[in-house]
Amino acid sequence: MTDFWKASGYQLLARGADGRLAVTPDFLRAYLLRPEMRPPEDACREEMALHAALMEDPARPVTGARLDALRDADARENWAVWLDFRDRLLAAGTLEGCYLRIFREGARGVPALFLDQLVHAILRGILDGTPSGLRARAGEMLFRQQAVSVDGGRVRAADWETVEMLAASGGFGNLGRLVVEAGTQPRGVDLDILDETSHAVYWDRDERHDTVLDVTFASAGLDALCRVLELWVAHFLQTRVRIQPVQQIRDERWIWHVGLDAEATAIMNGLYNGEEVGEERLARILALFRLDFDDPAAMRADIAGRPVYLGMAMTPDRRLRLKPQNLLVNLPLAGAM
User: Fold this and answer.
1) Is the pTM of this model over 0.85?
2) In this structure, is residue 334 part of a structural domain?
3) Is residue 136 part of a domain?
4) Are residues 68 and 174 in the same domain?
């Protein structure tokens, strides 16, 4: 099976007997090698020494006094944020343990970029060996913001960052940007839509983020997203669930729901509480799902056997930002995670 998502750092991690990804010195060094972590040429001697010491031993304790010795205030703040994140990783021992602790204890102070990077690496491990380019592309939705198009009844998700880049340059890099700035509209660039017959092209383009996933009801793309979400829950919570799209919620005993993003959470909360939700907001719902536990005993006793409804919705500016942590902390589990 072709390797994919090399930028995730998955190959730098060690997989434990339980399938979880153990933090390694090389994984931490990869952060230190990023351009934003490398001291600039005009950095002070203390920052250069700190970077060199951590490259030698990424788990080395760093005192507050050593940080205070850095002359540049922005550098002090950046190092403090990264060291706090590093310490969280080291304390948890695994990426999965760190991710869960962050949302149990509060994500305040942890940049969203670091959370996305954790999801990126964890999902790479979960999907290791998958033959489906559709599932891999669906997995990107859990850690990369999507731009949504709704046209002719079809709902399609493209990588938001890629769409923004193409909109600014017409797909022709710096030359395209110059053309746009000059007031000339360059030739449009189409992104390829993956389906059951074309999904194999994903493996040659996995780092380019230039493919589109059709998540219309009953589409192969939406099915792929369901399977990824099932694997996500099983990996973290050691319980199997079945997730299927539904066109609407017809359940007089609707008792539990989880929004897969902030917009869906707000809309579903309003519907559940009997509030008036306008047509404009309802139109932002892209998909609804029914989640069932294979083992009802894994659920809270008072609602065991009942379905959990999930929702996915775009923002007014047609963006989709999934929050995969919601499926880990908001399901009605019988015991603590």
Assistant:
1) yes
2) no
3) no
4) no
